[in-house]
Amino acid sequence: MTSVTVRVPAKVNLQLAVGPIRDDGYHDLVNVFHAVSIFDEIVASEGTALTVRVEGHGADQVPDGGDNLAVRAAHALATHAGRPYGASLLIRKNIPVAGGMAGGSADAAAALVACNELWGLGLSRDDLMEIAADLGSDVPFALLGGTAVGTGRGEKLTPLEVGGVFHWVFALADGGLSTPKVYRECDRMREATGMRVGWPEPSEDLLAALRDGDSVRLGKAISNDLQPAAIMLRRSLARTLEAGHEALGGIVSGSGPTCAFLARSPEHAAELAVSLTAAGVCRAAVIGDGPVPGATVGS
Ligand code: C5P
Predict the structure, then answer these.
(1) Which range marks the domain in which residue 145 is found?
(2) Which of 60, 185, 224, 298 is at a distance of 20 to 30 A from 202, taking alpha carbons?
(3) Is 104 touching ligand 1 by the criterion CB < 6 Å?
(4) Of 60, 70, 201, whose CA–CA distance to 139 is shortest?
């Protein structure tokens, strides 16, 4: 095999409940991940060394050396296999860079799947999941896809049955937000207000809405504990969320700055995308459905 193409989805967090900070600097979470139809594509081709090239919007913001998460993933896989394999990786970006939609994690997951195939290693998804968890909290979910509850720092996943398709609009921002900075701001705000931070619990309402495919109920149940911190760091997000008030619900996606709006139907999603664009509150508005499968071979 001389080259393998893998398609991998973005995620939005339907619930992001952030618990107290742990001794290792991470936070215990209840993180309801939902994979949506905005895809990056990774092509892994034979090569003597591990190299990467990135194309698409925001490509210049993505590291193109050993820091690239997809390269780190391929290295981790080669180490696991005990051989100094090489590959040249091409990443075609559609997922917003540093946008709170786990684009870097998605590319890492795609690199694991692509190199496993290219190098003929035959590792199972469970083996890849273990390597994925060491690369980042959101990488295992990009392998799994669908909708799942993540606990721990988000890497311990339980898949959820979902009774329908949900239609989303994503308001993409200019520039990204740093995830560690948003978590730090969340801690700072909680400390400044003397907030007592409880153990994160899944929302029963949200789980019922997902099970029933009930988008009206889901729109009311979506929540993100990182949202106040993201807005504090990027005040314009308050205006973006306000501009989407006709949606069934709207939240900042993960650590932002992308905002996610739930629509009643594909037509409603298209209307919302037009009104968000016309309001001038985003760089672009992109439509997507969820849930969709995780990293998959073939384009
Ligand atoms: O795991 P990952 O490298 O994707 O996490 C990026 C950053 O997000 C961490 O360095 C940490 O600051 C923050 N984080 C956290 N608690 C989590 C997940 C991420 O504080 N459960």
Answers:
(1) 3-160
(2) 185
(3) no
(4) 70
Q: Is the CB of 150 under 6 A from ligand 1?
A: no
Q: CA 185, 186, 191, 192 torsion: positive or negative? A: positive
Separation of CA 179 and ligand 1 centre (Å): 7
Domain count across the chain: 2
Dihedral through CA 181, CA 184, CA 186, CA 192, nearest 10? -130
* Contacts (Cβ under 8 Å, ≥6 apart) of 104: 62, 69, 97, 98, 136
pLDDT in tens, 276-292: 999 999 999 999 999 99
Residue nearest to atom 21 of ligand 1 (CA): 153
Residues 138 and 189 in one domain: no
Cβ partners under 8 Å of residue 199, min gap 6 = 19, 28
Active-site annotation, residues: 11, 138
Cβ(255) – ligand 1 distance below 6 Å? no
Q: Which of 125, 142, 160 is the last residue before a domain boundary?
A: 160
Task: For ligand 1, say whether the CB of 13 is within 6 Å of any of its atoms.
Answer: no
For the question of whether the overall pTM of this predicted structure is more than 0.90, the answer is yes
Centre of ligand 1 to C-alpha 25, Å, is 8
CATH for 259: 3.30.70.890
Strand pairing class (27-46; 147-151) = antiparallel
Q: Which residue's alpha carbon is nearest to atom 14 within ligand 1?
A: 26
User: Per residue in 73-101, pLDDT tens?
Assistant: 999 999 999 988 999 999 999 999 999 99
- Which of 130, 160, 190 terminates a domain? The answer is 160
